[in-house]
Amino acid sequence: MRGMMLGMLAETHIHSGAGRSEGFVDLPVAREAVTSYPVIAGSSLKGALRDAARERGMDESIFGDQDRAGDVLVSDARLLLLPVRSLTGSYRWVTCPHILERLSRDMRLCGISDGFEGASVERGKACCTDDLNQIFLEEREFQRSNGIDGALIDALKKMVPHKQTASRLERQLVIISDDDFGWFASYGLPVIARNKLDDNKKSKNLWYEEALAPDTLMYAMVFERKDGALGKVQSMFETKPYLQLGGNETVGMGWFAVKIQKQGEGR
Amino acid sequence: MPLPLYRTISEPKCVEGNAGLWYDKFCDMWNDDFNSLGDNGKKEWIRTVVRNVGDEALLREIKERVISLISNSGGKAMLFRTTAPFVTGLGRSHPVENGFAWHHTLGVPYLPGSSVKGIVRAWARLWRNLDNGEIRRIFGPDGAGSVGSVIFLDAMPVRPVELKAEIMTPHYGPYYRGDKPPEGWPADWHSPVPIPFLAVAEGQEFLFGVIPRKEATQDCEKVIGWLKEALQEIGAGAKTAVGYGRFACIEAETPEEAAPEPMTPGREWLEKLAEEMGKSVEEIFKTDHKMLFDSWNKIENAELKRAVFQEIKRTYQTKGWWDNPLTNNMKKTLSKYKEYETKEIEG
């Protein structure tokens, strides 16, 4: 069974929602139950892929129909790099050892060689490539720890669809411990206020929505049950390397730029 | 978890950092009982971000990426300049009591797509008196149901944004609050209350974009016309009744200008070839088309060959040369591509 990896870079805000909640945020994003990392369910991603195939006038039968399973398996889109606001530079791309370990397992599952060492970092410390003593993320301060494996930076660059964006990775990448990262994944996302006004410009309905910020990097895996199905998915992104998914489509949310990586193309 | 920053020794500063993070989370102007900032505290806190905010290189990159997305999706991008101060997000909670809508990662003011859509919809419905059916088709019906035909992207600044401190001074607070007379009369025994707030200065450029949903290109054209009118006439954001939030259209960003396309495998191959030749991709398409064809023809991997072909075809198409070649030689080269297309892709 062959697999490939979709590197997904958010071009706009993304709202893959979890429905209503009772908390301060009326409409939070979907999260993994155990880790609390934002996630896009495989069913949402598959639906978006099917829709993209339809829109491009391509064969959508590879996604199956009521009487027949599809030819492709689609995983959840998993979080890889979370943009977190900083007092040194606009934002940092933050990740943690657990996410990197998962990435490395998933890459091997797709037959792509990972080639980087897992990272390890203590609580309250941050691995990064610059020579600052402290890294400021949101209102928290981290002491600089070791640098970052160059092979890891190269592997991450291959997930990013734009050359110029990838060139910023080295400068902006920060690795913090799993526990520290969990806090940012839970509380570090933008919350957008939405308001509906009446004809006299008085508020009729005010609500708060959580979203993933632009430049969030996620990845998903696609496997084929039948030969040739992967090629069809790949060809969808040859001239239009974008995918829209999640809610609030007509107010500009949900656009990802997609980059595909396949077995033997690790280079 | 590390302690919040203000409990540690180092003194936080924000020079090149995210101005939105600084403005929203680091306010240290509280009075002793933490119930307000006092007038000077508010003014002084606002003053800490009165400068040009945003990272120039990053904003340029985002601009190019947004234009690529729009042109690839058949939409339209347009550049506007503020002709009056502009402020949005005043209702968000903040120690200064007037919030501000910051873009999360870029730390610059922006106008969310939902606001852009609301403005255009209000313009179409209230000022243009359009047919209800048309409004429903383009913007979606009221309440739940089906979806509109046009996508409105966030309006983003294209270079660092100049901010300024503004003051509003309502004289008749109780009247505006709707208190009962006689207290609520708009009379001159009430004291004026100066309220400082943060605004975007005049002359700042923002990029607006619309994308057709399911090929509703004509609707997109209409919407652009309305957007120009609405931003000039009724304005965006808060305080539009006193002249804030007006924008003038500078130019339509033609999609061809969009420089870096996202890296498809085809694009990657082309750029590598250009690098090896020491020429620009543009030049290769124009003068070295024969060489381009030969190198392409040598690709052994069928999938890659197809991907590169798609990219080559698309580039020729955007230049208009696919159907109208510049020279006879180019015509010959193109006919070979077309042969491949009929044989390998359509057949």
Kindly summarize this structure in a few lines.
The complex is a heterodimer of chains A (267) and B (347). Chain A has 267 residues and is of the alpha+beta class. Chain A has seven helices and 14 strands.
Number of helices of chain B: 12
Specify the biggest β-sheet of chain A: 12 strands, mixed
* Radius of gyration of chain B using CA atoms only: 27 Å
Structural class by sheet pairing and helices of chain A: alpha+beta
**Mean pLDDT score of chain B, rounded?**
85
The shape of chain A, in one word, is: globular
Mean pLDDT of chain A: 90
Roughly how much helix do the residues of chain A carry, as a percent range?
Answer: 10-25%
Series of H and E elements of chain B = HHEHEHHEEEHEEHEHHHHH
Distance between the termini of chain B: 61 Å
- Give me the count of strands of chain A: 14
Structure overview:
The complex is a heterodimer of chains A (267) and B (347). By secondary structure, chain A is α+β, with helices and mostly antiparallel strands. Helices cover 23% and strands 29% of the residues of chain A. Chain A has 7 helices and 14 strands. In chain A, the strands form 2 sheets. In chain A, strands 1, 2, 3, 4, 5, 6, 7, 8, 9, 12, 13 and 14 form a 12-stranded mixed beta sheet that branches. Chain A has a two-stranded antiparallel sheet with strand order 10-11. Chain B is of the alpha+beta class and 347 residues long. Helices cover 41% and strands 12% of the residues of chain B. Chain B has helices at 19-25, 38-47, 56-72, 113-127, 132-139, 173-177, 217-233, 265-277, 281-286, 289-297, 302-319, 328-346; strands at residues 52-53, 76-82, 150-152, 156-157, 161-168, 195-200, 205-212, 247-253. The mean pLDDT of chain B is 85. The chains are: A alpha+beta (267), B alpha+beta (347). At the A-B interface, strand 8, helix 4, helix 6, strand 10 and helix 7 of A face helix 1, helix 3, helix 4, strand 3 and helix 8 of B.
